[in-house]
Design goal:
By secondary structure, this protein is an alpha/beta fold. It folds into two domains: about 220 residues, Rossmann fold, CATH 3.40.50.10260; about 280 residues, Ribokinase (UDP-N-acetylmuramoyl-L-alanine:D-glutamate ligase, 3-Layer(aba) Sandwich). About 45% of the residues lie in helices and about 15% in strands. It is built from 19 helices and 19 strands. The protein has a twelve-stranded mixed beta sheet, sandwiched between helices. Strands 4-3-2-5-6-7-9 form a seven-stranded parallel beta sheet, covered by helices on one side. About 55% of the residues are buried.
Length: about 525
């Protein structure tokens, strides 16, 4: 896992290192500048022959805050390494921070001593390399005026852009664009990666992210767990190292001990969701899958997922109550519609959750699609006990989340971490909020999954995810539900990446993702 800090937590780590421990800010700034300069030097020297570098200078664009001070230090280091460098300071008449004034004074003196450093610039589209040092991680207002204009010119320049700590204009807590934002090829960020660089659109604007150790004091890290608001805590990004935590199959295992999944999915006219969830659950490692679905779907299910056990209904869904007692994990909702049968089905599922101590018995319920729409309706009407528990995982996309929270899609997308935490606390469950980068939380432990690609925006992809969540969670025997759901989301994205390699972004289907799950798990043994 990778630790992610929001903008307030990042500032607190910086302040603690300087004020409490006594690390001078100029020392941190020098190490930050060296980290950025090293990446720029590697790129330029790899691309441009020495005799041509004078004609291919690097432009460093600086604001008048500490991020601009970092940029001025980068310019000085580049010039000392014989990389021709131009400096452009936006709104140069501003007094700026103390660190900015120190770095500006040094640069002004150096321009008289070396031809490699110049405090002038040509039109931005004449540079092959630009270092963006306008705004840092603390930006909390919209970018307007000359700053927005310069950012626009950087993005139109066609240059290879390095951003210092964060792309200027990106909110490092939410990942949102604050009016205008630099689109970087690389971002060199300091100390820790940032939450906003793991979420869209911040992730796309950051390009390749390098985390540079510049000397922040990391001891006593827990002091920052509650920094940034009463609901704030450190967020973790799932990565390949987490796949090593998947348990290996016991040599003496039998199918009944490898996880029993009950999939409640598929109405009279929507049978595909049940098929996709069943295939994904089996590919994810569970031993047995029963599918409670409308009788119209029996033949399709048996034709496509012959290993599954169909239990069908027409109008009578009472058998479902007994089936719930059989399962280690229940998937409830994909394609069940919102008719009277669906309402009866959700009533049985909610009764099971309310009457069964599923947490102590390591049992789980995954709610998706129509199940969530019905849950939102019950919540609004206060017509049922909608309070869930941490072993219930809801998997809404942003539209479903808006209905569950009785708000707008724009409000949900404005701060995905906050929205996911709100879902978990409002419903007393684990929330997997699906987006280009998904947020998974039980309200106190929060994870981001950034695996996957745009080709996964295809019908049925969410049904595949529910199957993977169920199959993955059956491998474990404790109640760290949010982490397991995050791991399942990561596997889903990795499977999508495998499918992309075979079929491409445009041509891949949900079934391709489900089949690719076995390749992801095969790669880890």
């Amino acid at each position: 896992m990778i630790e992610l800090l929001n903008s307030i937590q990042t500032k607190s780590v910086d302040t603690y290192s300087i004020n409490n421990i006594g690390v001078p800010s100029v020392v941190l700034m020098e190490r930050a500048a060296l980290a950025v300069a090293d990446r720029v030097i590697d790129k330029v020297k790899g691309d441009v022959k020495p005799e041509l570098r004078k004609n291919n200078p690097v432009l460093v664009v600086c604001g008048t805050g500490n991020n601009g001070a970092d940029g001025l230090a980068v310019a000085r280091i580049l010039a000392q390494e014989k990389i021709y460098t131009d400096v452009f300071i936006i709104d140069d008449e501003k007094e700026g921070t103390e660190e900015y004034r120190i770095q500006k004074s040094i640069v002004k003196r150096l321009t008289d001593r070396t031809p490699c450093l110049r405090c002038n610039y040509k039109p931005l589209d004449s540079y092959n390399y630009i270092v963006d040092a306008i705004f840092g991680v603390g930006l909390n207002r919209d970018v307007t005026g000359i700053n927005a204009q310069v950012i626009g010119e950087i993005n139109k320049s066609g240059a290879y852009v390095f951003s210092v700590d964060a792309p200027s204009g990106i909110n490092c807590t939410t990942g949102r664009i604050q009016g205008a934002a630099v689109k970087a090829a690389e971002t060199i960020t300091f100390g820790y990666n940032k939450t906003g660089l793991a979420l869209e659109p911040g992730r796309s604007h950051a390009g390749h992210v390098t985390v540079a150790d510049i000397g922040f004091i990391k001891e006593g890290f827990e002091r920052f767990l509650s920094v940034g608001g009463s609901d704030s805590h450190i967020v973790y990004e799932i990565d390949d190292d987490d796949l090593r935590n998947l348990p290996r199959r016991n040599p003496g295992a039998d199918k009944g001990k490898c996880g029993k999944v009950l999939i409640v999915a598929g109405s009279r006219t929507m049978g595909g969701a049940a098929v996709l969830s069943a295939e994904a659950a089996l590919r994810s490692g569970c031993g047995l899958v029963k599918v409670f679905t409308h009788e119209n779907n029996r033949d399709t299910l048996l034709k496509n997922v012959v290993e599954s056990i169909p239990v069908t209904y027409n109008d009578n869904v009472e058998e479902l109550a007994d089936l719930c007692q059989w399962a280690d994990c229940i998937i409830a909702g994909p394609g069940i519609s919102t008719d009277d049968n669906a309402k009866a089905i959700m009533g049985i599922i909610l009764d099971y959750i309310g009457n069964k101590d599923i947490v102590s018995e390591n049992r789980y319920v995954v709610m998706d699609a129509d199940g969530l729409n019905l849950l939102a309706r019950l919540h609004a009407e206060r017509s049922a006990d909608y309070r869930l528990n941490s072993n219930v995982i809801i998997t809404p996309h942003v539209g479903e989340a808006a209905r569950l929270l009785n708000t707008s899609i724009d409000d949900v997308k404005e701060n995905l971490v906050f929205s996911a935490v709100s879902l978990a606390k409002e419903y007393g469950c684990t929330a997997l909020l699906k987006d280009a980068a998904s947020v998974i939380t039980d309200g106190s432990s929060t994870y981001i999954n950034s695996s996957g690609n745009p080709g996964m925006a295809t019908a049925g992809s969410g049904d595949v995810l529910t199957g993977i969540v169920a199959g993955t969670i059956c491998m474990f025997k404790d109640n760290n539900t949010a982490y397991y759901a995050a791991l399942a989301s990561y596997i889903h994205g990795k499977a999508g990446d495998k499918a992309k390699d075979i079929y491409g972004v445009t041509g891949m289907k949900a079934w391709d993702i489900a089949e690719a799950v076995s390749y992801v798990l095969k790669d880890i043994g």
